[in-house]
């Protein structure tokens, strides 16, 4: 009975979210997502018709942005900066329910703020290019978009779990780089298909500022399905188990 109560208490995470330090974690998630969306989406804007951004350009911008943020914010909040990451860690038992909800709210607010600031910083002509909004490629169906987003987010969450597993000494210190490179390679593969969101908040920000909601649900369903699948798989099959071990997924 005591063990079951402790498990339920840890899952809810009420004690964790009532600490003063939790406010700093929420600030870190808001700031991190704000910077990610502002910088990442800025790389997607076409400034001149003769020199549009390339897939490689966009991929490395997002990948290196996350790697940089992870070095700074990882020890503070875990640097999720992505609702799908928070949900995936919830499913694997490495993030409490209330913490996940609070993180997602802050991530979405940070993303919207990042897109809003980006709109203020660029000429009106560039805003017509979409503020880096994600969209399905030509002739790509909604189901194909969901599947692609699920696959790349599945890969991201597998890497997140692996490089932050406290029992794996071979990955110590490599988490930011590994996660950044995973995002980079996923973008190289998926930008032509879906815009490679793999982050619901990253898609939500430009959508809110532009008032364009078409296919927004694809970028929530796909990443969350992929994140949940990765969380379950890592917890059930890949994680090195040890009695009474409680992993921390902060960098």
UniProtKB/TrEMBL annotation:
Keywords on record: Membrane, Repeat, Transmembrane, Transmembrane helix, Transport
Membrane topology: Multi-pass membrane protein
GO CC terms: plasma membrane
GO terms assigned for molecular function: channel activity
Transmembrane spans: 22-47, 54-73, 146-163, 175-196, 216-234
Entry-linked InterPro entries: Aquaporin-like, Aquaporin_transptr, MIP, MIP_CS
Domain of life: Eukaryota
Keyword Cell cycle included in the entry's annotation: no
Keyword check for Transport: yes
Cited Gene3D superfamilies: Glycerol uptake facilitator protein (1.20.1080.10)
Subcellular location: Membrane
NCBIfam families in alphabetical order: MIP
Family (UniProt): Belongs to the MIP/aquaporin (TC 1.A.8) family.
Binding partners and assembly: Homotetramer.
Name under which the protein is recorded: Aquaporin AQPAn.G isoform X2
Record organism: Apis mellifera
Lineage summary: Eukaryota, Metazoa, Ecdysozoa, Arthropoda, Hexapoda
């Amino acid at each position: 009975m005591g063990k079951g109560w402790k498990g339920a208490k840890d899952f809810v995470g009420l004690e964790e979210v009532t600490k003063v330090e939790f406010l700093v974690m929420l600030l870190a998630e808001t700031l991190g997502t704000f910077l990610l969306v502002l910088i990442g989406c800025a790389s997607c804007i076409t400034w001149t018709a003769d020199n549009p951004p390339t897939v490689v350009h966009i991929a490395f911008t997002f990948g290196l942005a996350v790697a940089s943020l992870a070095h700074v914010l990882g020890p503070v909040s875990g640097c999720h900066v992505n609702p799908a990451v928070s949900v995936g860690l919830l499913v694997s038992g490495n993030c409490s329910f209330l913490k996940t909800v609070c993180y997602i709210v802050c991530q979405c607010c940070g993303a919207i703020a990042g897109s809003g600031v980006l709109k203020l910083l660029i000429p009106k002509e560039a805003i017509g290019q979409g503020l880096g909004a994600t969209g399905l490629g030509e002739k790509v169906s909604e189901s194909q978009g969901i599947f692609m987003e699920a696959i790349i987010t599945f890969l991201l969450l597998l890497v997140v779990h692996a490089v932050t597993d406290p029992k794996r000494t071979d990955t110590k210190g490599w988490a930011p780089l590994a996660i950044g490179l995973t995002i980079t390679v996923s973008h190289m593969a998926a930008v032509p298909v879906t815009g490679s969101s793999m982050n619901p908040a990253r898609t939500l920000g430009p959508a809110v500022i532009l008032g364009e909601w078409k296919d927004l649900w694809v970028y929530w369903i796909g990443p969350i399905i992929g994140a949940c699948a990765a969380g379950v798989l890592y917890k059930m099959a890949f994680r090195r188990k040890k009695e009474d071990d409680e992993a921390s997924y902060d960098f």
